[in-house]
């Protein structure tokens, strides 16, 4: 897989894909490639104007693309539920779900509409609830795949159940690392539970390495000395958003991808390069913590995979 590229994506004709946070960066490139391979792609985002521009950009590249934009704010459980209802009303099945949207290292602690710490709520809890609510459509697909976007930051992450929301002590990067660790643990736990319950899902995770997107330049500390040095080094240690999307695309489409797999770039420290199997840190493999996180997530969001599976 060391030379895997978008040219290796098989035909996705007749398949439906949802990509969160697809109005720019990694999500946009992921949606572009899926549409180019023939999938019906639903781009989601919070900014409707950017969503329409994204549609126009993809159609310029692929005039016959089967794409649409839908509003979805992962920082609002009501928005998640509303999107899931709209999707179910117009779609019998969902073949590919890419949980890509995210925010990074917000300088000050912010809360979602539901009172969650913003990074945990947007990056993880919103995607947990979305995936659960789309479970009926996923299970109707022939070979459904869910891909969660994690990060190299998961290596420094820990799930702090004593202060999950950062109420006692909020540190931007610690909160970000926790959210990205949670996304990887969610992918692995979802695969375990799907196998145990017979849901028929293929759950995977991916990370982009150091991809040149707006997430970092527009984030906190963009004008610091460290940030300026990082920008100077970018050509040597980073790759484009399109290249950063390749691990996600491999996970979402390749026959070589494995259930519970985690994919990232193959260069030094997994910063850039073609996609390969990525390193999973020991804390992400802790099944006891993963199970506890799953139960806490169900309680916080009020959304239960088991209940939805039974109802479906």
Feature tags:
11 helices; 312 residues; alpha/beta; eight-stranded mixed β-sheet
Describe the structure concisely for a colleague.
This protein is α/β, with parallel strands linked by helices. It is about 45% helix and about 15% strand. An 8-stranded mixed sheet has the order 3-2-1-4-5-6-9-10, sandwiched between helices. Strands 7-8 form a two-stranded parallel ribbon.
Estimated helix fraction:
40-55%
In DSSP terms, counting alpha (H) and pi (I) runs of 4 or more, how many helices? 11
> What structural class is derived from the secondary structure elements?
alpha/beta
**Strand order in the sheet with the most strands:** 3-2-1-4-5-6-9-10
Indicate the mean pLDDT.
93
> How far is it from the N-terminal to the C-terminal residue, by CA?
37 Å
Please report the total strand number as a whole number. Answer: 10
Q: Uncertain segments of ≥5 residues (pLDDT<50)?
A: 216-229
Identify the overall geometry.
Answer: globular
Strand content: 5-15%
Our Rg estimate from Cα atoms comes to: 18 Å
- N-to-C SSE string, H for helix and E for strand: EHEHEHEHHEHEEHEHHEEHH
- Mind describing the biggest β-sheet? 8 strands, mixed
Describe this structure as you would to a colleague.
- It contains eleven helices and ten strands.
- The strands form two sheets. It has an eight-stranded mixed β-sheet, with helices on both faces.
- Helix 4 runs parallel beside helix 6 (172-197) and helix 4 crosses helix 10.
- It has 312 residues and is of the alpha/beta class.
- It has helices at 25-36, 48-61, 77-90, 118-133, 135-139, 172-197, 225-237, 241-244, 246-253, 287-301, 305-311, and strands at residues 16-19, 40-45, 66-71, 96-99, 145-149, 202-206, 211-212, 239-240, 262-265, 275-277.
- The chain starts with 15 loop residues before the first strand and ends with a helix.
């Amino acid at each position: 897989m060391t030379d895997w590229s978008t040219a290796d994506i098989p035909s996705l004709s007749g398949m439906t894909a949802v990509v969160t946070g697809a109005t720019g960066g990694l999500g946009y490139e992921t949606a572009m490639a899926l549409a180019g391979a023939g999938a019906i792609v639903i781009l989601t985002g919070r900014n409707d104007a950017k969503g329409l521009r994204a549609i126009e950009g993809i159609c310029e590249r692929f005039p016959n693309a089967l794409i649409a934009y839908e509003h979805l704010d992962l920082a609002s459980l009501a928005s998640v539920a509303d999107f899931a209802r709209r999707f179910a009303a117009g779609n019998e099945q969902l073949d590919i779900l890419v949980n890509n949207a995210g925010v990074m290292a917000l300088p000050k602690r912010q809360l979602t509409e539901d009172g969650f710490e913003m990074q945990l709520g947007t990056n993880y809890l919103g995607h947990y609830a979305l995936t659960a609510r789309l479970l009926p459509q996923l299970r109707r697909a022939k070979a459904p795949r869910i891909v969660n976007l994690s990060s190299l930051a998961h290596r420094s992450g820990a799930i702090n159940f004593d202060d999950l929301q950062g109420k006692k002590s909020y540190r931007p990067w610690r909160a970000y690392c926790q959210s990205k660790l949670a996304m990887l643990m969610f992918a692995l736990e979802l695969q375990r539970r799907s196998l145990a319950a017979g849901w028929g899902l293929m759950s995977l995770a991916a990370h982009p390495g150091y991809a040149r997107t707006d997430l970092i330049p527009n984030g906190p500390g963009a004008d610091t000395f460290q940030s300026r040095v990082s920008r100077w080094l970018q050509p040597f240690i980073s790759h484009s958003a399109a290249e950063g999307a390749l691990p996600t695309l491999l996970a979402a489409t390749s026959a070589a991808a494995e259930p519970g797999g985690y994919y990232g770039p193959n260069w030094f420290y997994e910063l850039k390069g073609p996609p390969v199997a990525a390193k999973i840190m020991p804390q992400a493999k802790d099944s006891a913590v993963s199970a506890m996180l799953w139960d806490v997530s169900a309680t916080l969001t009020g959304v239960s995979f088991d209940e939805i599976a039974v109802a479906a």
